[in-house]
Amino acid sequence: MTGAISKGISFLKRQARDWKITAVRTSVFRFFYQMLLPYISIYTLALGATGTQLGIINSIGMAVAGLLGPFTGWIIDRIGTKRIYLVGITLLFISWSIYGMAQSWQIIIIAMLVYWLGFRTSMHSCSVICGNSLAAGDRVTAMSCCEALAAGLLGMAGPVLGALLVNTFGGVNINGIRPLFFIASVGMIGTFLLVLTQLSNRRWGNLGETKPDFLKDLSQVFRQGRNLKRFLVISVITYMPIGMVIPFTQPFANEVKGADEFILGAMVTGFALTPLVLGIPLGRLADKLGRKKVLYWIAPLIWASNLMLIWAPSSMFLIAAGVLQGFIYINLVIVGAMEFELVPPEHMGRWMGITGFFRMCFSAFVALIAGVIWDNIGPQYVFLVVVGIDLLIRIPLLIGMPETLDLRK
């Protein structure tokens, strides 16, 4: 036990300071996001939106954020991460404030648009720091440590606090949920100050010293990268649950299965439990055995989470489905590590922008489709479509993808 703790401390000590700062920032953000997660879609629907309109709201935000991704990445490669990071955090503060003040679902469109811009911009900077600060043999383990703290420990505390606050303020309704957004806004001020005072503005490569040429600089990424086009398809499908599963899980549990605020909170807590308990061990395996092998093990568990949610005859099965959904985050971490290993450090900002563009635009499309399916075919088919696409398209493409573990050692 002492040896394991000593190894863990040694592991953290050898990581770059900027990675530690951004890991803390991400963890604090995730705490407040997890506090809100069970209620965002319910709040939007309570303000008068339909399932289709909920899909449209998510689609607009993700599409705009995706379109700006390549430009944001290009700017990061030229001027560094810090200023872009601060812009993203500011947008998150504005988004949660607008949510809290919204009196109609139409205002939520603005809040969601600003949220996705803030989320993608802040995470873009975070991803560049993470991708360029970690050694290949430590990459998934370190990313899993961050995820275990963010989506795990704090991710479990967030929904527990959220459920208590919602119950205190009047239950799962507009008035009971609204104060949570103002609390999250205050949290974003804290993360802004952390990044402002503690993060360096390191820049990788010398792109900022060359004449700006947006299209030429983007095309350079594909000329020097490896298997990028195949990976783009794998990546967008891997991120599909962000637009098609997560926004609809809580409304499905609440409206179709009758879950109350405590069951909803328990589902999100279970969602956070999985990366907390298994994220680091599976990350270590991915660093030792390879990324692809662990991804093959995880995929059936994610499929099972969707099927269990649909079938769940009782609240305990809903919570179990939430626990299995936690493998979505572990899946994203490992695919994210592969993403970092396909390009050199000086291209990381642009590559993150390109992948973000395709992911967000595809997620925007599937969020819209999910809303249409929800209203016109049946809520359960939203989750079945995700399973089918992952099984029939992503897994065969992943089989043909070379292992990336040794590409950037």
Written account of the structure:
The protein is mainly alpha-helical and 409 residues long. It has a single domain (19-199, 223-399), classed as Growth Hormone, Chain: A (Up-down Bundle). It has helices spanning 2-13, 17-46, 51-79, 82-101, 105-133, 139-169, 174-198, 214-224, 228-238, 240-244, 246-256, 261-289, 291-311, 315-325, 327-340, 348-376, 379-399. The radius of gyration is 20 Å and the shape is globular. The model has no long low-confidence stretch (mean pLDDT 84).
Question: Nutshell version of this structure?
Answer:
This protein is mostly helical. Helix content is 83%, strand content 0%. The chain has one domain (19-199, 223-399): MFS general substrate transporter like domains (Growth Hormone, Chain: A).
Number of domains: 1
Structural class, by secondary structure, is mainly alpha
Strand/helix succession: HHHHHHHHHHHHHHHHH
CATH superfamily heading: MFS general substrate transporter like domains
Secondary-structure blueprint:
Elements: H1 2-13, H2 17-46, H3 51-79, H4 82-101, H5 105-133, H6 139-169, H7 174-198, H8 214-224, H9 228-238, H10 240-244, H11 246-256, H12 261-289, H13 291-311, H14 315-325, H15 327-340, H16 348-376, H17 379-399
Helix pairs in contact: 2-5, 2-6, 2-7, 2-11, 2-12, 3-5, 3-16, 4-5, 4-7, 5-16, 6-7, 6-12, 6-15, 9-16, 9-17, 12-13, 12-14, 12-15, 13-14, 13-15, 13-17, 16-17
